[in-house]
């Protein structure tokens, strides 16, 4: 009597053989990963051999708590000249750069959006969007921004009357989002007075948190594994919300431009708003921007136009709050300038010299964009002769640069002294709000 292939008598052998195959494949995969880890680590060690750094664990890298990140960076900036390798784990390391001459080499070399674009595409979009920031366009925006600030302050007045402390980043973010929506995207409503934009702000905050969380987790570097994790799912939902917000802004403006009266208003304008420039733009071959390019540019300016500006404003208020004498002098300068007018104008901006210096010094101490990452597409050689091969990731640390003793004398103990900004030989770039 023959035995069927599906007979229970044959199951133990089949299962055993299957387990053996799985075990063999798992062992091969483990050996492959171990070899890959070893080769990557050896390549990075060789690439970074000219750059000293603090001791790190061979697998876990430099173990730094999230809350100690910036302070540890400043400690290493003092200890290591120009740059140092930061090991996130055994086979992942970036070179942290905070020397202006090193940065010049990286930034002088020619993702999506102007923030991330490369080569010809970057130049094309830069040339296309430059008119959106002409002084004649920015002048009327001052009144729009002042009105947005007034809405925020009116809401604060009610809270102040309750004699309660408050966290200001969210209301400031709403104010800056309100401003950028009206100035750059022809938005007619008020972001601060309705709740439609709250999910977008929460999504941006979630994406920021998820990004830094992912960078620190070696198991989340694989896109497939990350997409299956709870953090990956949260990041996906936040991204969808952010993209939906952007798509709605573009869709709404496209619908408005179908109206003949709106088109007539556009023709009367000497300069177009940011979004209108994108919608009317034509590439070198005569075609309009793709939906992907449109979303990329709008995403970039929607995010950078409100989030980093809100961060800069909040840190400036913090710096002034911790230095009451400078705060009082700024207040007196603004009050003397405005008098009974009560609202700032374009002409006032050049007359607030002391306040401007305090803002710039606060942005030096607390840069809203503390760092920017780049992957080298070609080998580089720095002015001191040190070099890096193609494929290395570098992080341009503006926070480290702004606290670099080679650039700023006594950078951390110098308490908000605007006179520091009068130095003519300072090589440090200054971030300007709008």
From TrEMBL:
It comes from the Eukaryota. GO terms for cellular component: endoplasmic reticulum membrane. InterPro entries: Cyt_P450, Cyt_P450_E_grp-II, Cyt_P450_sf, Cytochrome_P450_Monoox. SUPFAM superfamilies: Cytochrome P450 (SSF48264). Its cofactor is heme. The keyword Ribosomal protein does not apply. GO terms for biological process: arachidonate metabolic process; icosanoid biosynthetic process; kidney development; lauric acid metabolic process; linoleic acid metabolic process. Gene3D superfamilies: Cytochrome P450. GO terms for molecular function: alkane 1-monooxygenase activity; arachidonate monooxygenase activity; heme binding; iron ion binding; oxidoreductase activity, acting on paired donors, with incorporation or reduction of molecular oxygen, reduced flavin or flavoprotein as one donor, and incorporation of one atom of oxygen. It is found in: Endoplasmic reticulum membrane. Keywords: Endoplasmic reticulum, Heme, Iron, Membrane, Metal-binding, Monooxygenase, Oxidoreductase. Pfam families: p450. Belongs to the cytochrome P450 family. PANTHER family: CYTOCHROME P450 4A11-RELATED, CYTOCHROME P450 FAMILY 4. This is Cytochrome P450 family 4 subfamily A member 11. It comes from Cavia porcellus (Guinea pig). The lineage of its organism: Eukaryota, Metazoa, Chordata, Craniata, Vertebrata. The gene is LOC106025284.
């Amino acid at each position: 009597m023959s035995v069927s292939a599906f007979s229970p008598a044959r199951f133990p052998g089949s299962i055993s053989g299957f387990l053996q195959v799985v075990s063999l494949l798992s062992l091969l995969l483990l050996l492959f990963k171990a070899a890959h880890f070893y080769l990557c680590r050896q390549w990075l060690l060789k690439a970074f051999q000219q750059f000293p750094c603090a001791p790190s664990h061979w697998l876990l890298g430099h173990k730094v708590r999230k809350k100690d990140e910036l302070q540890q960076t400043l400690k290493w900036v003092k200890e290591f000249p120009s740059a140092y390798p930061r090991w996130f784990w055994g086979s992942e390391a970036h070179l942290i750069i905070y020397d202006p001459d090193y940065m010049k080499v990286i930034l002088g070399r020619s993702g999506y959006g102007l923030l991330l674009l490369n080569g010809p595409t970057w130049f094309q979009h830069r040339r296309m969007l430059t008119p959106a920031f002409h002084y004649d366009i920015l002048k009327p925006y001052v009144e729009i921004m002042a009105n947005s600030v007034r809405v925020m302050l009116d809401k604060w007045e009610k809270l102040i009357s309750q004699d309660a402390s408050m966290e200001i980043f969210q209301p400031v973010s709403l104010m800056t989002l309100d401003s950028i929506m009206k100035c750059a995207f022809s938005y007619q409503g008020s972001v601060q007075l309705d709740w439609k934009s709250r999910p977008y702000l929460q999504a941006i905050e979630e994406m920021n948190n998820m990004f830094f969380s992912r960078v620190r987790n070696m198991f989340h570097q694989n896109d497939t594994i990350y997409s299956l994790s709870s953090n990956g799912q949260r990041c996906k939902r936040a991204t969808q919300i952010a993209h939906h917000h952007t798509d709605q802004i573009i869709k709404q403006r496209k619908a408005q431009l179908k109206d003949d009266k709106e088109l007539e208003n556009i023709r009367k304008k000497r300069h177009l708003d940011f979004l209108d420039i994108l919608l009317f733009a034509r590439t070198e071959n005569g075609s309009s921007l793709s939906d992907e390019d449109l979303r990329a540019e709008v995403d970039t300016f929607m995010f950078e136009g409100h989030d980093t500006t809100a961060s800069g404003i909040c840190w400036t208020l913090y710096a002034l709050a911790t230095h009451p004498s400078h705060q009082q002098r700024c207040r007196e300068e603004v009050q003397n300038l405005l008098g009974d007018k009560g609202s700032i104008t374009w002409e006032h901006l050049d007359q607030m010299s002391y306040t401007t210096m305090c803002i710039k010094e606060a942005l030096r101490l607390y840069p809203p964009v503390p760092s920017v990452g780049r992957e080298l597409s070609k080998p580089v050689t720095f002015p001191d002769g040190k070099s890096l091969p193609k494929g290395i990731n570098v992080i341009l640390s503006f926070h480290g640069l702004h606290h670099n003793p080679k650039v700023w004398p006594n950078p951390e103990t110098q308490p908000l002294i605007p006179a520091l900004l009068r130095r003519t030989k300072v090589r440090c770039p200054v971030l300007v709000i709008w």
